[in-house]
Amino acid sequence: MNIPASSTAASACPVDHRALSEARSPTGCPVSHRAAAFDPFEDAYQQDPPEYVRWAREEEPVFFSPKLGYWVVTRYDDIKAVFRDNLTFSPSIALEKITPTSEEANAVLASYNYAMNRTLVNEDEPAHMARRRVLMEPFTPEALKHHEPMVRELARAYVDRFIDDGKADLVDQMLWEVPLTVALHFLGVPEEDMDMLRQYSIAHTVNTWGRPRPEEQLKVAHAVGNFWQLAGKILDKMRQDPSGPGWMKYGIRKQAEYPEVVTDSYLHSMMMAGIVAAHETTANATANALKLLLQHPTAWREICEDPSLIPNAVEECLRHNGSVPAWRRLATKDVQIGGIDIPAGSKLLIVMASANHDQRHFDDADMLDIRRANSSDHLTFGYGAHQCMGKNLARMEMQIFLEELTRRLPHMRLCEQSFTYVPNTSFRGPEHLLVEWDPAQNPERANPALLESVSPVRIGEPSGHAISRTVVVDSIEPLTSEIMRLRLVAPDGRPMPRWLPGSHIDVECGTPELSRQYSLCGDPADPATLEIAVLHEPEGRGGSRWIHQALKPGDRLKIRGPRNHFRFDETAKKVIFIAGGIGITPIIAMARRARELGIDYALHYSGRSRATMAYLDELSKLHGDRLHVHAGDEGRRNDFSALLRSPEAGTHIYACGPLRMLEALEQCCASWPEDALRIEHFESSRGTLDPAKEHAFEVELKDSGITVTVPAGQTLLDALRGANIDVQSDCGEGLCGSCEVRVLAGKIDHRDVVLTRSEREANNKMMACCSRAAGSKLTLEL
Ligand code: FMN
């Protein structure tokens, strides 16, 4: 489809007139020289797509490319908004040839009766969602689990073939064939000639997303034509007996039930597109991931030493260096993207690789951080109704490949080489990946038992919040008879993660199931140490008891985080800090920060007696008469109603302590401006699910186009995960805030202790682990 010339008048000029060139956008305006030079078939784009469009991401995030005839979108929020609205931004051009081919090449394709049409990826609503729903079941985590042993067995067998050679081209010797074999199993297709299918897949990529030269076009057309015919033959054979496992067979069986939804044309197109989609993306993604990790030896060493880091490392590699750098959409009406007018009929190239390096969404976006908490926000799998259906199969394969290679070849390194890519906009991975190692050092020679150990694969999105790190207990020191201070350092002396006042860490108290949160109460400026203080609760659930009784200096400990749901707003005019008992811990770093910034503040600290109150001397030295100690046995209770009698504009109150104290404070602050009071809870019973007292409700997922029922005995979080929707979660009790989802309609019954009063009243977000619908339905932005 050509961009209509008539659409020029409506649109404002989107470009920088100071940097003129001869090139014209469809608006008739000249485009900037960099937009004019943009060419995604250049090697510079192939080598590093986010770097190639850094200028655009920073200065001209939506621009028209005259060479391509597309509008190019480069920022995270804009691309997510495009994916989210698949009516305004139609996917119908996703499989169109990006480079129109010669008459001769078209004639070759026609001679094979080539008729690639709608699959899922390029189908508009309402046909798309009806079909997606009918065909979804084999992609659910439950169904995918059955494939894990086959993937593992294949990965091992391929490593066996080269492990004693001391060198390999991982792409040629493993990363193409294993995903291709897995893809064929998944589809239910008998194993065909692997080399031929690989060549066909590359031809399909070049035909659809490449810029083949005229002489190349004929060769490509023959390969694509043959691929089309082969797909037809496989389908015909499958139709004779569509029983047994495999997604294509499942599709044939569903055709009998829903002939208008699962059409013949769909099945033939999908057979061909499916073979490509299911393996080329995974093969490229794994090659990209291995290249990236081997180029970052610290990250490689860390995953070799601790395979539990692999699921998030996979996600971070998909973010940093994914295999699908860009995708396409068609604007169906005049619309704005990032403030730029886009006329109806415009074609869009949305560069997800650029979104994934957008500093506005990812801190230190260019850095590879395998513990990054929001790695899985990447857009490599797309987003919304068309999000990659095979994402969890790809994640599983990548985890298994990394696990096998890190365990068996931790001493592997990249050879000197230059990397080449097939020039095209959308499928990207090195054509070869040469690695070498000393076979004499293969760990399994000294320790054959190593081959038996297997780390569990995580099917679905990993939670970056769930990534643990090992630390060493440097010192343990009693602060009172019930509270002890722990100083934690890195085992190799490296700096600890950075944190801000209000942050806490999760400590694994002996087993991963017994995880407890502890606020950081040291100095954020000290990069080497994390300090926590733990109150012994003998009648508790066992976490604090374990810390007090089992832990010794020199022990290793697993922690997660830091995370912060109690952020200190440094713009406050005045701050009142109120701490009760062990609730002093998050307040310590905040009060120090207020002092550093010269903010007017007061610190009120209550306890049963001075002897039970940790850090008193240190606080008194630092804060002098800004510290007010309220010791119960001295008859000096904190009188909140007197302290907070008159609301003051610009004053913030930060409070942490026992539940009763916090409830009393909430009452006293009822007449204060909204959100003046900011609270951290250490405990909550509000989120406990009692099926007898609950009712079932429906959730409509706007972006995915499905409706899920949440039974009385299930949390919203579990219901979403059961429907293959990724939502992060950590504490599961409504304390930590990691499972927040956005709500578009329906009244929420909030059960968490994270949201502020005004956030609850706004009724536009909720914690999926514990909060529910007040009525019978909610609509979520998922
Ligand atoms: N307990 C402490 O003793 N010190 C802390 O600094 C501390 N910080 C916490 C921060 C947050 C965000 C939360 C949710 C809880 C915090 N707690 C803290 C409470 C502990 O996580 C835990 O509930 C307590 O040690 C009792 O655990 P137990 O019942 O397993 O013994």
Describe the structure.
The protein is α+β, with helices and mostly antiparallel strands. The chain has four domains: 103-452, Cytochrome p450, CATH 1.10.630.10; 464-564, Elongation Factor Tu (Ef-tu), domain 3; 574-680, Rossmann fold, CATH 3.40.50.80; 691-780, Ubiquitin-like (UB roll) (Roll). The chain contains 27 helices and 28 strands. A six-stranded antiparallel beta sheet has the order 14-13-16-11-12-15, covered by helices on one side. The structure holds flavin mononucleotide. Belongs to the cytochrome P450 family.
Show the helix and strand layout:
Elements (H helix, E strand, L loop, with lengths): L32 H5 L5 H5 L1 H4 L1 H6 L2 E4 L4 E4 L2 H9 L4 E2 L12 H9 L15 H9 L5 H4 L3 H15 L4 E3 H6 L1 H11 L6 H16 L4 H27 L6 H11 L6 H32 L1 H9 L4 H12 L5 E5 L3 E3 L2 E3 L4 E4 L1 H4 L35 H18 L4 E2 L19 E3 L6 H4 L21 E11 L4 E7 L13 E6 L6 E5 L10 E6 L7 H8 L5 E9 L9 E7 L3 H14 L2 E8 L8 H8 L3 E5 L8 H4 L7 E6 L2 H10 L8 E4 L16 E5 L4 E5 L5 H7 L17 E6 L2 E2 L7 H6 L2 E3 L4 E2 L3 E4 L2
Parallel strand pairs: 2-8, 17-18, 17-20, 18-19, 20-21, 22-28
Antiparallel strand pairs: 1-2, 3-5, 4-10, 5-8, 6-7, 9-10, 11-12, 11-16, 12-15, 13-14, 13-16, 22-23, 24-26, 24-28, 25-27
Helix pairs in contact: 6-13, 9-19, 11-15, 12-13, 13-15, 14-15, 15-17, 15-19, 17-19
Bound molecules: flavin mononucleotide (FMN).
The site of flavin mononucleotide has 22 residues, from β14, β15 and α21.
Keywords:
27 helices; Elongation Factor Tu (Ef-tu), domain 3; disordered N terminus; 6-stranded antiparallel beta sheet; alpha+beta; binds flavin mononucleotide; 782 residues; Cytochrome p450; Beta-grasp_dom_sf; Rossmann fold
